[in-house]
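pasting for ref
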Amino acid sequence: MNYIYDMFLNFKEKLYDFYDWNTNDNITHIRKIPAFKITSKKLKDIKDNIVQIDKSFLKKIYNKTEEFKKNETNKISYIALFSDGNDILAIKFNKKGINYMKSSLAIDEQDDIIDIIKFQKEINLKYKIIKKQKQEVFKTRFEIENKKFIITELNKIYNDKNYKKINYICLECFGKPEPSINKSINKIKKEITKENDNFYKILDIFKIINQK
């Protein structure tokens, strides 16, 4: 088994590029991690889908990853690096072998590690696809997370029957309220799918409302 040493990972349910990492993210400082070369198709499958890997592979990587924690190192149950020689990602599996968290790599680390892994022999990784993971194509982490925030707050306002706030948002963003509350909500939801001034105006309004 081949290992990569001393690197940083940022595990999330959705895979974010390195430029979308935030300073307040829970970054994992890896001491060592097993690395495997697989085919491009398999890498795409585990990148774009929820998969369950074979139990034999799960046993193979059990407690093989170590992280730095203050003045000591801790073992992490099921983590591995995968690359096809062009792209690379880290996957965290649960005890059932499901890839529930993923991480990209810093650009400088990514290129160096790919140069190492691409000379390895491909392994025959066995898995089954459980379901396709919805991808927000061409959306940044900022847009994805803030869209989710707006939808959550909008639903909260609707459930509290605070319709005046929804009318106020429509008035501020569109110049007039809609004839019904459902039309107002649908218009706001449709507007936040676009990258325009109204998206940021709606976001600012909800942030102000959330602070009150």
